[in-house]
Amino acid sequence: MCDGTRGDLPHDIPEILQRGVAVRREDRRPNALSALAAIVDPTHRARGLSRRVIEAMRDIARWHGLSTLVAPVRPTLKPLYPLTPMDHYITWRRASGTAFDPWIGVHESMGAEILTVASSALVVTDTVQRWQEWTGMVFPESGRYVVGGAFQPVTIDLRRNVGRYEEANVWMKHPLPPTPQPP
Q1: What is the dihedral of CA 146, 139, 136, 88, to 10 degrees?
Q2: Cα(24)–Cα(84) distance, rounded to whole angstroms?
Q3: Which distant-in-sequence residues (6+ apart) come within 8 Å of 49 by Cβ?
Q4: Which pLDDT belongs to residue 65?
Q5: pLDDT 10s digits, 34-83
Q6: DSSP single-letter state for residue 113
Q7: Helix (H) or strand (E) holding 169
Q8: Contact (Cβ atoms closer than 8 angstroms) between residue 128 and residue 59
Q9: 168: Cβ–Cβ under 8 A, 6 or more apart, which residues?
Q10: Where are the alpha helices (DSSP H) in 64-101?
Q11: Long-range contacts: 21-30, Cβ < 8 Å, 24+?
Q12: Which of 32, 54, 64, 183 has its CA 20 to 30 A from that of 174?
């Protein structure tokens, strides 16, 4: 359950799933649809498919009589700016006034509004060896490391033999215009 306000948003991706399971287990009627991910294969990008994915989610929400569609958006250009905090990154605008990030821009062009940043939407913790395997990097000392494709640095603690990555996402809320009625 989610009423679509900042204060009622899940803190992370696992909480989205936990809430959904709880609604089902308790036989309650859901009132919101949340995206988990909307991914278009790179070979099919720039064809308007991302808009169609969001439109399909809105249609599903309306078809089920839900009042809210929210999405923990993962901005596409953020890995190029891993040292910039997400709450600052989302304020960047192009000269035209549109969002700097194209994926945020797609959502905004469809009427979505930014609600807040989920600072730890996705957390990955594993051994230093696993992080070295995943990244192809060597971590010679404890500290923060910029890793290709990551939104922010990975923190490595050699003494504890752990690497931790916390990825921020952007909670966006989509309007759900009523389904057009046939004439």
Answers
A1: -10
A2: 39
A3: 40
A4: 85
A5: 888 878 788 887 888 888 988 888 988 888 888 888 888 999 999 999 99
A6: E
A7: strand 162-174
A8: no
A9: 85, 86, 87, 117, 118, 119, 120, 121, 151, 152
A10: 86-89
A11: 28/1, 30/1, 30/64, 30/66
A12: 183
List 71's β-bridge partners, or say none.
172
Beta strands in 35-161, from DSSP E residues, in sequence order = 68-73, 113-126, 143-145, 154-157
Please choose, from the candidates 30, 123, 13, 24, the residue with its C-alpha nearest in 3D space to the C-alpha of residue 72.
Answer: 13
* Residues 13, 72 contacting (CB under 8 angstroms): yes
Q: Is 10 helix (H, G, I), strand (E, B) or coil?
A: coil
β-strand partners of 171: 72, 116
Per-residue pLDDT of 129-139, as tens digits, reads 999 999 999 99
For the record, the structure tokens of 70 come out as 């929210």
SS3 134: helix
Name the residue type at position 157.
Answer: D
Q: Which two tokens stand for residue 4?
A: 């679509």
C-alpha dist (Å) from residue 132 to 86, 122, 147, 152, 156: 25, 19, 10, 17, 10
Residue of 78, 100, 92 whose CA lies nearest to 151: 78
Tokens of 153: 């640095």
